[in-house]
Amino acid sequence: MTRPRSALRELTATRFRLFLREPSAVFWTFGFPIILSIALGVAFRNRPPDAVRVAIEASPDAGRTLVQLASPQVKATVEDEATARRELRTGKVVLVVVPGAPITYRYDETRPEGRLARSVVDDLLQRAAGRRDPTPVADDRVTEIGARYIDFLIPGLVGFNLMSSSMWGIGYVIVEMRTKKLIKRMLATPMRKSDFLLSFVAMRALFVLIEVPLLFGFGWLAFGLRVAGSPLLLFALSTLGALSFAGLGLLVSSRAQNTQTVGGLMNLVMMPMSICSGVFFSTANFPDGMQPFLRVLPLTALNDALRAVATEGASLQGIAFQVVTLTLWGAVSFAVALRTFRWR
Amino acid sequence: MTTTPPLAVSCRALVKRYDRDVVAVDGLDLEVHAGECFGLLGPNGAGKTTTVEILEGLLDPTAGEVEILGMRWSTDERALRERLGVSLQQTHLPERLSVGEVLTLFRSFFARGKDPDEVMRVVALEEKKSAWSEKLSGGQKQRLAVACALVGDPELLFLDEPTTGLDPQSRLQLWDVVESFKRGGRTVVLTTHYMDEAERLCDRVGVIDHGKLIALGSPRSLIASLGGQEVIEVTLEEGTLDEAVVSRLHGVHGVRRVADGFALAVEPLHVALPALVDHLRGASLRLKRLATRHATLEDVFVELTGRGLRD
């Protein structure tokens, strides 16, 4: 007779088996974030600055202006007035130069490219007209690893992934088991409820060991990403994040009777955070008044802390606020979930 | 040494009310002796599942008392669970776990129990040990569900409609499993709406209708209570039987109307049948159909309620 194994171990092993046997779950957890980071890494790769596209309105002086604007920074064409206006409207050019006295710049002031084009073009034309700069200047151009978009993106994707796999792997799975009466069936055995819940937590903690190296490893191989801080701290932080979201996953699943309900609840939790918590772009884009609220969202806390460790080499003291925030979210949601959990 | 309590299950004045006015179980008293196979019989919606789920400690009764193996759910839940095997009416076991993995998982919940390989042999699933449960037939799935109940080596086994929806051969296989468990001197409580299942497996049955126990006894004694072990079914070309006259014929113990004619409870058949034929001839009634069969629990149910079990 083979020795029976502990229920917790067997439940956790079962969770692993069922996950690995569900190809779509494996894809969404491991494949999708990599594809996303490739796509975004390519789309927002660092390039030499583009030439600004401008149109010169046809006039007797247009030829001379065209010559004056000959520079790698500018791509200019001569167009009649109607064409020039249309191209400005459709964004094909960002500035129209109307030669004459005075020279008129036509552009959309609210667009950064427009303002950039105005300053570049004006600079060239003023110099051609004989302006001399009173102070000599020199440029020191740098592109630092750690300050690129991909360096910003990868920690965000890690945080996002820890959130979504905790929510799906716990919230959705538990409700599915409830619908199929599997939880009820297990309750008819001497299985401890705590073993059942802990198996989900254990699985999430173990998964961090795969998810986090996978994404950072990929970032390193494909984009030369470096982790400035302690990898150990990064792991501990990711585990804390995974457990915190495990609590939220448990909470959304605690009452839901069918997978549609839990799907809606999960979206309610995940959608706002995937936009507002600095996954794809910095939370600094939101108004100052919102910042205190954004800062205490669990995903914001996790992303901020991951970035601080990965790119700035922050220590535990440096991310204390985020660590406390995550711990509170996890502890409170666990406590509420345990009280409200629908077992039967 | 284990002290076997005289009663495996006892419940008194059991009531389960859903919402305000839906009464699923309406004052049920029940006793199941250790070592017997007890069947709860009744049509769909009679309250069978609600009753067993209360006995299994999965539902709380609105009122009444339950004692299982001499213990109570409120105080001895864990100890009870170790000694009970439960198979729910519907369980979807994880589709992508193999038979062996499912049984190893369920075995891990019990402090003591049977080796999963041994249980696989009992339910004849050894060949499917590494097959995912989604690949199993309906009968195999149901045997796996029962195996999950057996893996803790229970003293008391609850089976809720174990063969509903199965083909005849799968039912026979499942009956074999239940009978081999009974041979070990263990107690079984099962629900069914199949009369043949109850007659074959159960030492005693309780017939439930509208949440109330309307008859209790061995299948044989319940059938005997009809007054006759045999049934004659009569369909006439035209006209009708004079029930008062027919019921006084020799060997006829009861007459009741059925969909296309009459059913007579008779015993002995060789006395009742000639008497009936003579009566029909004398009354100039022409037969369209006449058939005889053994009386079943179905007849008992119809006698008691005026309805068929699957109406």
Describe the fold and architecture.
The complex is a heterodimer of chains A (344) and B (311). Helix content of chain A is 63%, strand content 6%. Chain A has two domains: 7-44 and 145-340, no CATH class; 52-128, abc type-2 transporter like fold (3-Layer(aba) Sandwich). A four-stranded mixed sheet of chain A has the order 2-1-3-4. Chain A has helices spanning 7-20, 23-43, 62-68, 81-89, 112-128, 149-179, 182-187, 193-223, 231-253, 259-276, 291-295, 298-312, 320-340, and strands spanning 52-57, 74-79, 95-98, 104-106. Chain A is mostly helical. The radius of gyration of chain A is 28 Å and the shape is elongated. The two termini of chain A are 33 Å apart. Chain A is built from 13 helices and four strands. Chain B is α/β, with parallel strands linked by helices and 311 residues long. Chain B has two domains: 7-218, Rossmann fold; 227-294, 2-Layer Sandwich (Alpha-Beta Plaits), CATH 3.30.70.920. Helices cover 34% and strands 29% of the residues of chain B. Chain B contains eleven helices and 13 strands. In chain B, the strands form three sheets. Chain B has a six-stranded mixed sheet with strand order 5-6-7-3-8-9, sandwiched between helices. In chain B, strand 8 and strand 9 (212-217) form a beta hairpin. In chain B, helix 3 runs parallel beside helix 5 and helix 5 (138-150) runs parallel beside helix 6. Chain B is elongated, with a radius of gyration of 23 Å. The interface between A and B is medium-sized, with 26 and 33 residues.
